[in-house]
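2024-03-11 09:14:02 INFO queue: dequeued item Methylglyoxal synthase, len=154
2024-03-11 09:14:02 INFO validating residues
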Amino acid sequence: MSSQYKKINIPERKNIVLIAHDNKKRELLEWAVLHAKELAKHNLYATGTTGKLLERETGLEVTCFESGPLGGDMQAGAYIADGKLDLVLFFWDPLAAQPHDPDVRALLRVAVVWNVPLACNQSSADFLITSPYFSGKYIKTVTDFTVYKNRKSP
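2024-03-11 09:14:37 INFO prediction written
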């Protein structure tokens, strides 16, 4: 099956989800406080605990999903699949076992499937936030899954 592509306009004001595993929450919070002025230009989403901490530490408004282990990662993934999130900042802890590891993998996978910028650590987040695309318009290319969606069932 040959892939067809389509262009998606990403506006200047982006929908950004911020997620952090327990051992990375402090790191994400410090990063968010440092970049609060830039983050304030966007619509922010987060998984439950992280979102509440972000609101408290930065004073920014954050729309909260459930906590990650309670389905928050899956909610973020659904938003990505629906085209409702433009960027993922996920301070992931690859050294700690996570009870919801399948959900984490699914979130990372869906971000890649839909060509959503994804930072899994502070260095990557630094690169993204300093990119002119972070607060500028951007046209991304994604696979057009229309043929896949319309295929006949076996």
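2024-03-11 09:14:37 INFO annotate: The domain at 4-149 is CATH 3.40.50.1380 (Rossmann fold).
2024-03-11 09:14:38 INFO item closed
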